[in-house]
Design brief:
By secondary structure, this protein is mostly beta strands. Helices cover about 0% and strands about 50% of the residues. The protein has strands at about 15-20, 25-30, 40-45, 50, 60, 70-75, 80-85, 90-95, 100-105, 110-115, 125, 130-135, 140-145, 155, 160-165, 170-175, 180-185, 190-195, 200-205, 210-215, 220-225, 235, 245, 250-255, 270, 280-285, 290-295, 300-305, 315, 320-325, 335-340, 340-349.
């Protein structure tokens, strides 16, 4: 019920469940506002909803995007929200105006990835084989040449105008100021997700062949980590960029990338409490915790400085997979959604 504040049995001090609320359908995507004031959730069927993060009450229902919304992303300031749809549309809700979004048609392919630039305030979107960058007003800043296959993920390199795009055959590094030809990290495989380290020195991607691949951006040197149980769709860098957390199985697998030799030849830290594979892993932006969404219905929250390694909190969605999680910018709030349509918001202090 909205407004409920409760700590689970055995939870670490400072972590509590604030409320839970149903949205009726499988939660596809979540976006918690940077200031922790609003939660936006996209169900598998129907309209995305905006929910007050303090009370759990409904604020607004957003326009539908054909057969559904696939991805959501706030800009860094928390003023504008972007939504990508199965109908090939990009919606930009400027200044939290939920009734009058800017609508851009990107074609017939699904819009599956969004990434706001931290400085320019432009949003990149991928649709099928294409990637383009848009202003908040819906003007096209640049449209890059099509890739040879569907783009699976995009990510801005920190403090630059370089956008990484993952597709079969490797990673293309597009530069907005010189968009004609990308730098390419060629790799014979299918990347599924990618993420930059905080300083932009390393790029990591999880892959369909149950591996994780690292690239050193300056030299193009690469490393590959094997041994995962399944496709790796879950990766996230620690805020300082020294550690990479991955899924690819039932445990959080954390690689130490902060040493001179990087993760090569090292043994990762394994954080285990789930009974089946993970759906997402996310570091708290301030770095004190890491959260994992499990297909076993558990949300686990771990302190990154605690040993022995036991979760600080575990919430059971009771038969529903945990399908999406999102932190606020300062890490004081975490929202999780499940396949049953349940949302839960947690406070972390």
């Amino acid at each position: 019920m909205p407004g409920l504040t409760q700590a689970g049995q055995g939870w670490a001090r400072g972590i509590s469940r604030r409320w839970n609320a149903p949205i009726g359908e499988h939660v596809i995507a979540l976006a918690l506002a940077p200031d922790a004031s609003l939660v936006v959730a996209a169900p598998s069927i129907g309209n995305p909803v905006v929910i007050d993060a303090e009370s759990g009450s409904l604020v607004a229902s957003l326009p539908e995007q054909g057969a559904g919304t696939l991805c959501l992303a706030w800009d860094g300031a928390g003023r504008h929200l972007a939504a990508g749809g199965k109908d090939g549309s990009l919606l930009i809700f400027r200044d939290r105006d939920w009734a009058n979004p800017v609508r851009v048609s990107l074609g017939e392919a699904w819009v599956e990835s969004l990434a706001w630039h931290a400085v320019t305030g432009h949003v990149a979107a991928s649709s099928g084989k294409s990637v383009a960058v848009w202003s908040e007003t819906g003007d096209c800043v640049v449209r890059f040449p099509d890739h040879s296959s569907t783009v699976s993920a995009i990510a801005w390199r920190p403090r630059s105008d370089t956008l990484a795009a993952a597709a079969y055959g490797g990673i293309s590094l597009w530069t907005v100021s010189h968009p004609a030809a990308p730098r390419v990290f060629a790799w014979k495989g299918s990347p599924l997700c990618l993420s930059w380290s905080a300083d932009g020195s390393m790029l990591a991607h999880g892959n369909q062949d149950s591996t994780v691949h690292f690239w050193y951006a300056l030299t193009g040197q690469d490393l590959q980590m094997t041994g995962y149980e399944r496709k790796v769709r879950e990766i996230d860098w620690s805020p300082a960029g020294h550690f990479l957390a991955t899924g690819g199985g039932p445990a959080i697998c954390i690689w130490n990338c902060g040493t001179k030799g990087g993760p090569a030849g090292s043994t990762p830290l394994m954080l285990s409490c789930h009974d089946s594979h993970l759906n997402q892993v996310r570091y708290q932006p301030t770095g004190g915790y890491i959260a994992a969404a499990g297909s076993d219905g558990k949300l686990s929250i771990w302190s990154v400085s605690s040993s022995p390694w036991k979760p600080s909190a575990v919430h059971d969605f009771r038969g529903s997979e945990v399908t999406a999680i999102s932190w606020s910018a300062r890490g004081e709030a975490l929202v999780a959604g499940g396949s049953s349509g349940e949302l839960c918001l947690f406070r972390v202090v």
